[in-house]
Amino acid sequence: MAVSLRGLSCKFGGIFSPLKIASTSRTYFTYVNEPAQPIKGKEPKWCTAEEAFQDLQSNQTVFAQGAAATPVTLLTAMTEVGKKKGLKNVTVCHMHTEGPASYTDPSCEGIFRSNSFFMGGNVRKAVAEGRGDAIPIFLSEIPALFYKGIVKPDIAVIQVSPPDQHGYCSLGTSVDCVRAGMSHSKIIVAQVNPRLPRTFGDGIIHISHIDYAVKVDVALPTHGGKPPTPVETSIGKHIAENLVDDGATLQMGIGSIPDAVLSALTNHKDLGIHSEMFAAGVVDLVNRGCITNNRKIIHKGKIVGSFLIGTQDLYDFVDNNPFIEMLVVDYVNNTSIIARNPKMTAINSCIEVDLTGQIVSDSIGTRMYSGFGGQVDFIRGAAEGFDGKGKPIIALPSATNKGESKIVPTIKIGAGVVTTRAHAHYIVTEHGIAYLFGKNLRQRAHALIQIAHPDHREALEKAAFERLKCMPSA
């Protein structure tokens, strides 16, 4: 019978030498992977942030929690420890993180190397300059990197709420792949922050699983709260008034366009939320009675998410709120689970779309910008909706801030297609809605040109003729 040891394994009856972690003597019962199961007789070592990395060594892999729960205090301390100890080749793997990401500074080259499952702005420069890496991967499949042993963390660096009366902490605003990452790590280091919301769902961890604990009292990073531009408002209205039905289940990410959609839904009824993340606009719709989740078949009456980042109002809303379920991302973003939601309406954005419907979302030419994220998971899940009423939507301004068209004859050299032209259904700009499903290439080109910026339509039509050898036509 095999026993999992947070990334190691042994057999009963064999020779077993327990790891020396947190300077405590360990038995079999110490090595319990399930974070909800208390480990009898074990407590974390409370220490300073730098002391928490006394076991950090060269050639190790560190997994870091992300989004609003990014443990910035610990990651900064880890960077200093790595420098002082003269370490080499420490890999830091993570989804989108917030804060300075000091381990990606040029002075850390050779000491630390970032490996992103989804890139945030704080690591783009390192990746562009060859000092960091990015893995193209669907959000739903990131936990499988740990389950399959492709990524084997030595240390998990997380942020949790203080333990309750039963000794349970919460991962708060970021459950996603964190549960898988920490469960497969040999050592868990946590910053314990009273400002991190306690959430319901999969994000609980008993204090006994934490090896080193560091007390902090720091505000979470915030995003949003700015009014949408006229272009974003127009996009939001097109989607809300034409594509979102009463009783629909919504998925949308963070940003001005999702916020604009939410602000235009105040007259809708019985909406539900099943989304890897959601924004502060959800709070207003809940307070207005627009979001009830009572048409949902699974998780009826509950908002389902996996991670989030937003305003302080959003954090206050999710704190200790049983109306919210924060679940693992391999479940939330599972296409078959998504498809079970009524009128599943997935709203995502992108960088550019070509005249055949190829959608670029993770890169600008050869320069990596973000990642696959959950776009394909939800675009496909909505298309496969059990009731045949799902709507996969890609929304984008028709032009960049510099006036360049975002609907293009061909994608930039080196750019990556995240959502294929076979996946594309609805494309929305401030100029209208193009429905591509079932259309041939010249029909697609015609539909997309109609929603392009007027300044670029003539050039796009000429380019379409050159590419297709015929005029775009409805």
Topology summary:
Layout: E1 2-4, E2 9-11, E3 45-46, E4 61-64, H1 72-84, E5 90-94, E6 112-116, H2 124-128, E7 132-134, H3 142-147, E8 155-160, E9 168-170, H4 178-183, E10 187-192, E11 200-201, E12 204-206, E13 212-215, H5 230-242, E14 249-252, H6 256-263, E15 272-273, H7 281-287, E16 303-305, H8 312-318, E17 324-326, H9 329-332, H10 335-338, E18 344-349, E19 352-354, E20 359-360, E21 363-364, E22 367-368, H11 375-383, E23 391-395, E24 407-408, E25 417-419, E26 426-429, E27 432-435, H12 441-451, H13 457-468
Textual characterization of the structure:
The chain has 474 residues and is of the alpha/beta class. The chain is built from 13 helices and 27 strands. It has an eight-stranded parallel β-sheet. It has a six-stranded mixed β-sheet with strand order 15-14-18-23-26-27, sandwiched between helices. The chain has a four-stranded mixed β-sheet with strand order 24-19-20-25. Helix 5 packs across helix 6. The longest helix has 13 residues, at 72-84. The protein is globular and about 70 Å long. The termini are far apart. Residues 1-31 have low confidence and may be disordered.
Rounded mean pLDDT is 92
* Shape, per Cα inertia axes: globular
Which regions contain 5 or more consecutive residues with pLDDT less than 50?
A: 1-31
How are the strands ordered across the major sheet? 3-13-10-8-4-5-6-7
